[in-house]
Structure formats: structure tokens, C-alpha cells
Amino acid sequence: MGGSDDPSNLFECTTEEHANLHLSLYFDNGNWEDWIASQAISGIMKNEEVIHEILVLNGSKKRSEETKKKMSESAKKAWETRSRVQSFVPSTLGLKHTDEAREKMSQAAKDRWRRHRENTSK
Fold first, then answer.
1. Is 94 in a helix, a strand, or coil?
2. CB of 17 closer than 8 Å to CB of 109
3. Which of 19, 36, 57, 117 is 20 to 30 A from 50 via CA?
């Protein structure tokens, strides 16, 4: 995860799995981009909020050291208690899907995109 679009670095996953992967990366590496991605992909954060947070975290809007410290402590506490995370991290996170299950998920995703393209091209 992270890095290039080389086929060896890519695999199919559901939207929920994609959000959870970003959340895991956030807790492993602390990159705020992964936190925002997990929140946006899972639908917790709306587009306007995403844009606002990106502007804030890129330095366009300054936060005091006290605010940053409170946010950091809050994030650490959420991870330790897992209360915030448990609401959308499935207990199966980290388990491997069988080839058959991956094929079914792939086909379902392709069908969703096909239906989406059909509906938007009218």
C-alpha cells in the first residue's frame, strides 16, 4: 500500500475495505492524509469537510499548539479504547479472502460500475 500504481502494488477491495486500509495506515504511520481518506471514503466526512481539513492540515489555516495537542491526545485515546474505530472496522480486518470470494467481489464491483455508467449516460 502506498507507492506506485504498479500492478504488483494493486489489488481489488471493497469501499469499506479501502477505508479501513487507510485507517490502518493512519494508525501505523500517522499520516493525516490517510485519516481524511478513511473518513471520506467511508462517508463519515463530506466533501466540504474534506476540503476544509486539507486546507487546515496543509497550513492554510493555523491551529494552536494546544489544539493540536488536544487532537493528538484524542486520536491516541480513540485508538487505545478502539471505541471510535469499532463503529466501522469489521472484525474480519486482516483476514484473507479466498480466490472465489475475491472473484465474486470483483464481479459485483464491475456490475455496480456498469450499472452506474448506464444510469449516468442516459
1. coil
2. no
3. 117
Cell output for 122: 442516459
Q: How many CB atoms lie within 10 A of CB 106?
A: 13
Q: Which residues contact 2 (CB under 8 A, 6 or more apart)?
A: 25
Which CA distances in Å does 75 have to 7, 68, 85? 33, 11, 10
Residue 112, C-alpha cell as written in the block: 455496480
Summary count for the chain: helices (H), strands (E): 6, 0
Question: How many CB atoms are closer than 10 A to CB 39?
Answer: 20
Interval 58-74: pLDDT, tens: 766 667 888 878 878 87
Q: Read off φ and ψ for residue 66, nearest 5 degrees.
A: -65, -45
Identify whether the C-beta of residue 53 lies closer than 8 Å to the C-beta of residue 36.
yes
For residues 61 and 46, the answer to whether their CB atoms sit within 8 Å is no
Domain map of the chain by residue range? Answer: 7-95
Whether pTM > 0.70 for this model: the answer is no
